[in-house]
Q: What sequence folds into this?
């Protein structure tokens, strides 16, 4: 309850500061609209169904991209953590894929994978992959060697060792990667939509910004993205609280 | 087999442990400063069902010796045989050996009950018939194999029994971080005993405890062993503890470790904590100290007085 109150208070302070900024500087609405104008625009966008239409598209891209990216990353990260050979072979490609600007890569991926939902999910998954894979690798490597020897002495199979010792002991670190990953998933979805899509919040931003010169609508889309990011991050944190036993 | 039948079968009488034979064992570790010899020419016969105490200074290879017997470490040279079978080299996780360590090594995110049940959840179905075969017994013992169905239930019931035996009945649902050092050691011992292994290796399991608690533990361990004899090897620094616990005390040389002397302890059991004051025990105590002093003339360090 107290946490909620603090969050609300901070939101009010933020909106006030925003309002004051627009009044003091006298910035026109098409450059920085004041909060009440954005709010009014949001109500209209919600009422007409426009906002939900685009949000649904982006949200599905984010969730699918996150799922594909996270599952692959945990699997690959586990392999990287367990085998130095795998790490030597794969890590240059993984680092390269992460270093190449996703903005430049996205249009190509869009063409290669047919320009549909699949392409956008893959772009999103790609950007999510890196932090989670690296976190998993680091987590797996930091497994207590005494417990590893214990599992060996008890006759655990390699699979049991991975599933019941290494991954559980890496969980706190993996969740660190997931927290970074969810926020990147939001960016990934928007970038993917910019590379070629008919709808989604990224598309809405483009239309509002460059087509309609409707800056308040652009702020509505940006705010929606922020809310998605905060919500998903909160979901990850609450799963982490349930799953990770802090000794 | 039903859960009840399985548990009943697990209480079936078991042969009193397996013998262990080490012949001319050498163990070498690679290190930055060249190979490091931990054991050299170590030959030792451990009779089935005996309680053997290994004593010697730090770094003389006592833990290495236990790891070789547990199959966690392959000797560089020499042979280790467990039981009377033909193919009798130790293999890690074959279920013949229960290990309790100096640090209890409890899995931090599991409850105490699940920690103790852990050994029963790995490959057990294929493991226990092997135990029976090595003991040369009839397939009656194979009945102790857990059924593939509902193994978790059986494991939990057996784990609770193991906790009861070591006096941790109420700690089942706690996490390792909530236990005192002594309780954690008990849990480690319960885990080592839960598969009812014919060989129990104890690597200074009580060394982190205060002297009084430790005497209590020694008494309990002696009682557990008398209730259900098996081959036990206990590593310690304490001569007093060695004399109280052992059938035979094996004094090890400094590194590279080998057997310097084997001193039999032929005293009636159960032996009380006050045993050290009795003349017969004092004589053995003196003999062990003399052997240690002879082997380690430069190392008459305080551990001799403990």
A:
């Amino acid at each position: 309850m107290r946490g909620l109150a603090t969050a609300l208070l901070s939101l009010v302070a933020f909106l006030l500061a925003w309002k004051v900024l627009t009044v003091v500087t006298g910035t026109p609405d098409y450059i920085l609209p004041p909060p009440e104008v954005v709010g009014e625009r949001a109500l209209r966008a919600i009422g007409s169904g426009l906002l939900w239409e685009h949000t649904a598209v982006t949200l599905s891209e984010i969730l699918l991209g996150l799922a594909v990216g996270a599952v692959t990353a945990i699997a690959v990260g586990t392999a990287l953590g367990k085998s130095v050979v795998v790490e030597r072979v794969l890590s240059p490609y993984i680092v390269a894929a992460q270093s190449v600007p996703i903005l430049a890569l996205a249009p190509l991926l869009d063409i290669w994978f047919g320009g549909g939902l699949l392409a956008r999910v893959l772009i999103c998954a790609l950007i999510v992959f890196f932090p989670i894979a690296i976190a998993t690798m680091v987590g797996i490597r930091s497994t207590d060697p005494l417990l590893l020897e214990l599992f060996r002495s008890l006759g655990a199979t390699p699979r049991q060792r991975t599933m019941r010792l290494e991954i559980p002991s890496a969980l706190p670190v993996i969740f660190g990667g997931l927290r970074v990953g969810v926020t990147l998933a939001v960016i990934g979805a928007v970038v993917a939509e910019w590379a070629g899509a008919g709808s989604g919040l990224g598309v809405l931003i483009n239309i509002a910004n460059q087509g309609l010169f409707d800056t308040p609508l652009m702020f509505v889309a940006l705010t929606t993205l922020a809310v998605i990011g905060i919500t998903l991050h909160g979901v990850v944190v609450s799963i982490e609280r349930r799953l990770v036993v802090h000794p | 087999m039903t859960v009840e039948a399985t548990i009943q079968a697990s209480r079936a009488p078991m042969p009193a442990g397996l013998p262990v034979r080490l012949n001319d064992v050498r163990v070498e570790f690679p290190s930055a400063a060249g190979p490091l010899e931990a054991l050299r020419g170590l030959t030792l016969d451990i009779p089935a069902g005996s309680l053997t105490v290994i004593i010697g200074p730090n770094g003389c290879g006592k833990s290495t010796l236990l790891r070789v017997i547990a199959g966690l470490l392959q000797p560089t040279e020499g042979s280790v045989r467990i039981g009377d079978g033909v193919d009798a080299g130790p293999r890690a996780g074959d279920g013949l050996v229960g290990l309790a360590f100096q640090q209890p090594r409890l899995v931090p995110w599991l409850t105490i009950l699940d920690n103790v049940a852990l050994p029963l959840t790995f490959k057990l179905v294929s493991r226990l018939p092997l135990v029976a075969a090595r003991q040369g017994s009839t397939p009656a013992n194979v009945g102790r194999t857990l059924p593939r169905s509902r193994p978790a239930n059986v494991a939990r019931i057996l784990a609770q029994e193991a906790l009861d035996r070591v006096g941790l009945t109420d700690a089942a649902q706690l996490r390792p971080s909530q236990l005192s050092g002594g309780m954690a050691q008990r849990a480690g011992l319960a885990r080592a005993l839960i598969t009812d292994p014919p060989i129990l290796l104890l690597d200074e399991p009580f060394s982190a405890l205060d002297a009084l608690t430790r005497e209590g533990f020694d008494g309990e361990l002696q009682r557990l062993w008398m209730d259900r004899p098996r081959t036990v090897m206990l590593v310690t620094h304490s001569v007093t503890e060695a004399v109280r616990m052992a059938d035979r005390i094996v004094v090890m040389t400094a590194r590279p470790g080998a057997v310097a002397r084997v001193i039999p302890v032929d005293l009636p059991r159960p032996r009380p904590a006050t045993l050290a004051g009795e003349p017969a025990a004092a004589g053995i105590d003196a003999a062990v100290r003399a052997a240690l002093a002879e082997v380690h003339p430069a190392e008459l360090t305080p551990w001799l007085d403990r």
